[in-house]
Amino acid sequence: TEQATKSQLLRVRADTVDRLVNEAGEVSIARSRVEGEMLSFKQSLLELTENVIRLRHQLREIEIQAESQMQSRMSLLQEIHSTFDPLEFDRFTHFQELTRMMAESVNDVATVQQTMLKNLDEAESALLAQGRLNRELQQELMHIRMVPFSSLSDRLYRIVRQAAKETGKKANLDIRGAQVELDRGVLDKMTAPFEHLLRNAIAHGLENKDQRITSGKPEFGQIQIDARQLGNEVVLTFSDDGAGLNLDAIRARAVANGLLEEGAEIAPEQLMEMIFLPGFSTAKEVTQLSGRGIGMDVVRNAIAGLGGRVEVASESGRGTTFVVHLPLTLAVTQTVLVNAGGQTYALPSVMIEQVQELKPEALAKVYETTEVEWMGNHYPFSYLPRLFGDAEHVPPVQRYNSVVLLRSSGQRAAVHVDELVGNREVVVKNIGPQLARVPGIAGATVLGDGRVVMIVNPVQLTHRDMGALVITKAEKLPMPEEKKAVVPLIMVVDDSLTVRKITSRLLAREGYEVVVAKDGVDALQLLQEHTPDVMLVDIEMPRMDGFELTKNVRGDATTKHIPIIMITSRTAEKHRSYARELGVNAYLGKPYQEEELLGHIAGFISAAVATKH
Length: 613
Known about the structure:
613 residues, alpha/beta, 5-stranded mixed β-sheet, 18 helices
């Protein structure tokens, strides 16, 4: 109190703070764009470094050839003009002068390249420092928006008093960890759900005075709220010492509503999840506190809308506990970016329990069973674009296919995605009234390249049409039958950066998947991970040339069937015949005709498909 009176206080409008937080987020987005450009610049600089080294080696070869020609010329002149001294001859021709000038030019380029590398390191260090400062600024601004949970205490105490008076029960509320701070936006949106949990605890949980005395419990029922911060989450535990959930009444109501077959076996945990279904209520009469059929489903939707989750546990005669997990702030969140169906989506990191890499055989089995089992839990399975109504896109079958296991609010789901992009801390943007009520969309963000990416909740989408739990004895949930499409993989092996880029763009435009290698050694390493349908190989490459690579490919039982198209500037007949002896399937000279190359590739792939069938 003394410190507060000594320091000067400044009242700031809440919307002003929100605007500052949004602008700090825009700075983060701009920085991520600069980081992307820096990454591209670094990659190009590494390519430049390799090309300078290759140019230096080639220049050294030219100098050796020039020196040998000069020596032979000197020997010939000495034989013709034996009376002249060697020093009287012009030792350096214009050819030697050009090689010296080229060497100087290569050294100049190398000097510029070294300077650029140094500047790149300095720029990366400055960008890292700027990112750290920006993060600190963002955290300080968000801290301004934080309010303690105790700001709700008086309101919650009043709710308990009113509900106890209306029901004729006696109850005490104990709040622990009230000093824990939450984002003002989170607290405002969660006030009504918290009040509903307290009303439910009194109306459904606590027994009346006579029942409590008969059970040996104190006359006053105890309701406790425990708040604590765990990482970037705030965990709120609502517990009471009442009778617990009436599982028999829940089962009877579920059977009456057609959600459960008579006599069906169901775990107690799954039965407890029934209370979150829309319109589900076990109250026998309608009052201001219960029986309206509007309750726990609204609570769960409000929590899920903030990117949180709620879990329930109950013990008969001992009480019920609700554990609510909420994000610390709504401004920034950790996500995992994924590509699926030609679109990029962001999945909140707190939902992800496991990422599995499945081979095509295991993936096909999962599509048949429509579920994934992990750690004793069952995850309903689907292809992510199918949840958005995209029935046309066919998932590509790769050597390893990513399946993400998610959990949210006690529900689980598994989704198949085309590619995992990586972890990103993103700035959450308001999606507006048009999408605010669409299930499964938790928000949106803007990437560094300007793309708008939706932050989605696949668990909510998976259970949208299924209902929270619709359990029968013999019925299986229908899932769409998936078609499998294998995108042909082409490997381009060439030491020229220009050739690699041009060929890769051509093949990608035709719908092929492409991997590139700089030389034979690099190609052999890639063959450990990928089995291409066709290989495009150059002859003259450092470390290992095209002929040696072809020998290695044909000598390995796992790769000897791969068609090889050799593309080179060496078009002499002896090179062609040697390539045929090694097992090269087609031989093209540079520059090649695009139609001819694509025709060869299509022919080899068609022949491979016909052989399989």
